[in-house]
Amino acid sequence: MQMSTAHFRTAAISCVLFPFLFLASVRAETVGPFKDELFSAQTVIESLDGGDFTRVDYDELRDINGRDSIPERRVKDRYVSLKVRRVQENQTLQLSTGPMELGRVGRDQGQAFTVIFIHGRGGDRRLGLNDISFGGNFNRLKNLAAENGGTYYAPSVRSFDDKGVAEVAALIAHAATQSGGKPVVLACASMGSFICWGLSRDAATIAKLSGMAILGGAPDPALPKSAAAKAKLPIWFTHGSRDSVYAAEDQIFIYRKLRAAGQPVRFTLFETGSHGTPVRMTDWRAVLNWIIR
User: Fold this and answer.
1) Rounded to whole angstroms, how far apart are CA atoms 220 and 160?
2) Which residues in the chain show pLDDT less than 50?
3) Distance of alpha carbon 149 from alpha carbon 87, whole angstroms
4) What is the largest CA-CA distance in the chain?
């Protein structure tokens, strides 16, 4: 974008006369950029609710075949930075519910924020640590966490019932303790959303969370009456319009109910996207900066 001399002069004067306002604007976003030109340049074809609901253009030929060197198996090298593996390790945490296997990227304690990703059925921690599949989107998430003083956890969830909910609640408590109470964001994909919805009933855990991201998740009719709804927990939904597992319309209905009740919610609908599209296309930097505020 071209900027005039007057623009720069105005900016310079603002910095001198209003330094605190300038610093506040600089610090407004917790998570700085990482390959935004490749991941964030998405075309919005419809915007509703003051921008809270957006329909985003998705094209398989461009967003899969044009992005991957081997479609759906290996992304092109320019989309990733593998240096982040230097701060990645597999761990077995001893939590109050027992041992949990997970991958950790970034700091072990004192982190500025924490992101926890919950995989769907048939997955484990390896899915959320995969650098080269899913269009490199997990690699971006890992780099966003590591470069901004955060921590990223990708746990192996053994079940999506009450036991799994309790285990993830224990991980959230661990993250809150390790960080000294800094923001914790829980992201759940596909069937992993059952974990998010189970935790949405737990007021003690909700108090430790800054928000949730739901990627192609199952709709939960009870969510509008949950502890998460009462606490006005920010939730960002991303979904494919042609999801054959969980219909987009059902999730949009939940979004509408939450928004009507005054809960901070956003919804990104990937036009023509399938069930797996949100994992590949969700703009993690936008989601994290909206939740962590």
Assistant:
1) 14
2) 1-27
3) 11
4) 61
pLDDT reported for residue 28: 62
111 near 87, Cβ under 8 Å? Answer: no
The Cα–Cα gap between 207 and 227 comes to 9
Tell me how far apart the terminal alpha carbons of the chain are, to the nearest angstrom. Answer: 27
What count of other Cβ atoms lies within 10 Å of the Cβ of residue 185?
Answer: 25
204: exposed, middle or buried (Cβ count in 10 Å: 0-12, 13-18, 19+): exposed
What is the C-alpha to C-alpha distance for residues 278 and 237, in angstroms, rounded to an integer?
9
39 CB-near residues (< 8 Å, 6+ apart): 79, 137, 140, 283, 284, 285
pTM of the predicted protein model: 0.91
CB 125 within 8 A of CB 152: no
User: What pLDDT shows up at residue 29?
Assistant: 87
Dihedral over alpha carbons 278, 281, 282, 283 (to 10 degrees): 180
Q: Are strands 74-75 and 44-48 parallel, antiparallel or unpaired?
A: unpaired
Query: 166 Cβ partners below 8 Å, 6+ apart?
Result: 97
Pairwise CA distance, residues 231 & 247, whole Å: 27
pLDDT for the residue numbered 13: 38
DSSP-H helix ranges across the chain:
5-17, 19-26, 36-39, 60, 125-129, 137-147, 162-179, 193-199, 203-206, 227-230, 248-260, 277-281, 284-291
